[in-house]
Amino acid sequence: MAEDTIRGSTLLEETFYITSKKNTYYRVKLSDKGLSLQKESNGATKTETIGLNDIIGCRCMRSKRRSAGSCACRPSVSKSQLRLVESTTDGFTTWDELDTSAYLYIYAYTLKKARVKGARRRERTTITLRFRSFDKYEDNLREASRWRLAIKCLVARITIPWNLMSPSHGNLSDLLDACAGDRKKILVLLNPKSGPGRGKEIFQRRIHPILSESEKFYDVHITKHSNYAREFVRTRDIYQWSGILSVGGDGIVFEVVNGILERPDWDRALRELPLGVIPCGSGNGLAKSIAYAKGEPYDSNPMLISALSVVKSRKTPMDLVRVETRNQILFSFLSIGWGFLADIDIESESLRAIGAQRFTIWSLARLIGLRTYKGKVSYLPCDKVSIAESKSNGNIYDKDFKDEVIIPHSRSYGDQLDRYCGVRESKSYHDVMDSVTSGLDDMYLDENDVITENLSLETENQVRTRLDSFYSATSRKSTYFSTGSASSYHSMEDNDNLTPDEENESGNRVMYGPSSSLPALTAQLPNSWIQIQGEFVIVHAAYQSHIGQDCFIAPRAKLADGVIWLLIIRAGITRTNLLQFLLGLSTGAHLTCPGVEMIPVRGFRIEPEGTNGHMTVDGEEVDYGPLQAEVFPSMATIMSP
To answer: Which of 67, 325, 455, 640 gives the lowest tally of CB atoms within 10 Å of its CB?
Structure first.
């Protein structure tokens, strides 16, 4: 890749060598666009680049004192361990005094093209730079720390303190203390029963390491019962955290959103606290919609893409929809359903343990026993999207993504550098912390991550089993750590005085939020509304592109476009056409099926006849009866990659 792909003024530059290859060295440059790595070997030049947007963090390390008889310079040394510089409190007395080098680890997740045509994925890239120009470790650490500080400031998009970047600056402690970014923790609300019930295990094995690499601190709270997250967010001082991360399905996000809207300071909370989601449920519509909106390859590794949304600290606005029923007011972020799709969502709950496949199985059952629903659907057309554009013309599915820079495979630079074994899940140096009582002085890298003389430039892709350094994922209490054990985990046994609120459970909640501009639910609608009376098979309102990982229901929906996409299928559609509709949901081709209408609206009202049926808001069942909704553009803030 040409060097001009990383443009911008050079902030730092250094030359690194590889002892295993003669006449080979690297010129490494850091600019405000990323890292440029120019390889010079026997007169040939090759430049590789790592974009700044792909870098999530970096750490300085030092080699630990080896056992008796080993030598840092000996080629036959089989194992070595590194330790965090920041957690040193003993005057470096446990370090290998023969190796005064400072190692800078740079963690990135770069976009790759898979072997399958058109498929893309993100792969973990670790660049290791060894600084050993000076005789004293403190001097080498100063050089590595200058790079670390500059990278951290660039990643956090804050001003670099140039007074600390001068080579003549001699105060090492100032460099080590100058940590960029928000030091507030992230609030993690984890539902251990979402989907197949693996949220706890997924977080500790796949999400925690990525948070550690980016030095994101967090507090984990495990939900104990329905509406636990809702009450937690409603009653706690949530401003002590920098954001709220929901680990589970769309249900826990629904709880968090409505818990915030039950606070008198809801406007400040939505503005200051971005919402994130780690998809461990059955549907995971929001996580997929965020990735789709940002052009990220979600399907190749949903957990990774969602974790990167958290660590990259980008904030993106998102619409919310105010929903009014006869008995309550709710706020929705995903969809509202009546009919076929709502029936599948609610009636397949008994199959939750099998994950997203429950929807496929129940779809077939409902297709065989097809039902219709009588009632009236009224809507206020959206003036932002022309009716001509909203028609199903076969071109509604826009597959175009922005062209992405394809980064060559990971390389590590320096001499006698450590080689990570191939890991698809992020490997972090904190993972050997296995109990609350373990001292910080025992925090080392996994012994599989070693320095060897046999340097391999390519990052291996083979999957290996990660060391389970936590308590068992099925235990009643596990321990989570993030950079120096600053993060905390609250077990299901902790007494935090959050019990189900009987009054709130009955629906008598005080809901704040913006006031409605629609007529009262019992009032007559104005002539500007369009009304459809009759029998329906499906009425589904979506404001995200996906309502499930494989349900691409509204291809033209954006995160913050101020539009509700109202899908209507009336009675009379054949089972063949309805099956074609269901099969097309994964690609967006369902909009070309006969009998399918997709209408952009600003508000709508559903008035069903009878009392038998299901109505859902974000997958949660609400009272069956009249319901109306309106969109509030850019009301919430979410974490995005």
So the answer is: 67
